[in-house]
UniProtKB/TrEMBL annotation:
Bias-annotated ranges (Basic and acidic residues): 97-109
Region ranges (Disordered): 80-143
Organism: Amycolatopsis nalaikhensis
Biased segments, Pro residues type: 80-91
Name this protein carries in UniProt: DUF2188 domain-containing protein
Domain of life: Bacteria
Length: 143
């Protein structure tokens, strides 16, 4: 025979009161939201000692449909996030400037964007320049 266990939910301010009854017993608990209340109800069902064939009916205001609707809405609703801040074009976020900012001694003078060479041209230019020689290497070359 399949046993029926009833889990009844009542909202009290921001918390939920749960009453689980079956096997001639009744257990109660509270939880901070409908999702946590549903999880707590499962724990109370286990405490009742219900067997694996027990059917649990979850009710909100006496309706399984109302419970399911409220529970699924809570599960599928995204949390409220602060609005995304989009920086104006051409600006660099503060995080990137702090990480990539070279020391003052390492900085190369920057030309305005209109005067800069494309990166490919700059790379070719650097590859064509001979590597700086040390004084020893220069003396050996002269000898």
């Amino acid at each position: 025979m399949v046993e029926t266990i009833t889990a009844t939910y009542v909202q009290e301010d921001a918390d939920w009161a749960i009453t689980v009854s079956g096997n001639g017993k009744e257990l109660t608990a509270r939880a901070p939201g409908i999702i946590a209340a549903r999880d707590r109800a499962d724990q109370l069902v286990e405490e009742l000692g219900a067997d694996a064939k027990a059917t649990v009916v979850h009710l909100l205001n006496g309706s399984a449909l109302e419970f399911t609707s409220t529970y699924m809405t809570a599960r599928l609703t995204l949390p409220k996030l602060p609005p995304l801040e989009v920086p104006p074009p051409g600006s660099v976020p503060k995080q990137q400037t702090a990480e990539k900012e070279p020391a003052a001694a390492d900085k190369k003078p920057q030309l305005p964007p209109s005067k800069q060479l494309p990166k490919a041209v700059e790379d070719r230019k650097q590859a064509a320049e001979p590597a700086p020689a040390t004084e020893k290497a220069a003396e050996q070359a002269r000898a």
